[in-house]
Amino acid sequence: MILLHRTIEFLIYPPGNLLLFLLIGLLFFRRSTLKPYLWFVAIAQLLLFSTPFVSNGLMNSLESQYPPQAQLWEQQQAEAIVVLGGGRNDRAVEYGGITVSNAEMERLRYAALLHRKTGVPILLTGGDPINSGISEAQLMAQVLKDEFNITARWVEGNSHTTWENAELSDVMLSADGIKTAWLVTHAWHMRRSMQVFTNRTVTYMPASHSYGVSAWDKKWMLWMPQASALARSGVALHEWLGFVWYSVLK
Predict the structure, then answer these.
(1) Which 3 state secondary structure label does DSSP give 101?
(2) Residue 88 clears pLDDT 80, i.e. is over it
(3) Which residues form the domain of 44?
(4) 215 or 155, higher pLDDT
(5) How far apart are CA 4 and CA 185, in angstroms?
(6) Where do transmembrane segments lie in this chain (predicted)?
(7) 43, 49, 200, 217: which one has the fewest Cβ atoms less than 10 Å from its Cβ?
(8) Among 185, 92, 181, 162, which residue's Cα sits nearest to residue 134?
(9) What is the tally of structural domains in the chain?
(10) Rounded to the nearest 5°, which phi and psi values hold at 104?
(11) Residue at 215 is within a domain
(12) Beta bridge partners of 180
């Protein structure tokens, strides 16, 4: 089911929808005067989403609501740290075949910093949507122990979505009497995360990190199509699509 969801998602926004536009043009508008316009729209939106100007704007629309804060531990107090899963690397032979993704590693690093500054215990949440035999939470727990010498108190390995992250983490924390927790994830992911972590038994406070910027976005480079900008646009569109979907579900 997760593969079907991702397939549909990848066909909605670029570059997947470019293929969809071209196929529609070939199959249904073969002799129509609309076909060149359809192709123009497909190529134009691909080029636009590939520019730092557009990708930065999309990212900023997500990140500006919960920007990272310097020395968060001096401004707030929490009783737990919740770290959201962020993917895995299944071909990391140098690490024994499987390990956390780069995004997940960034989240662990910030959680480790918060833990060292406060001593607050950590909850790791993330399931195993591809049935590999080990959950993202377990992978994070291994890395947290091996590379940061920190043992997670809670490991929630049954959730497959951010919504399920919120539901199952809240059950674990509230069962142990936790009232407040920092929610650790990327700044671009925080808006959708807080959407589903709000109004739970535990009060969650955003602890975002990695406020994103494009490396090449100065002067004319702001309008130069770049693969990295297209990737950032894809991340932002995924987040907004998820945000709208969760709004419907709520």
Answers:
(1) coil
(2) yes
(3) 2-63+221-249
(4) 155
(5) 25
(6) 12-29, 36-55
(7) 43
(8) 92
(9) 2
(10) -65, -35
(11) no
(12) 203
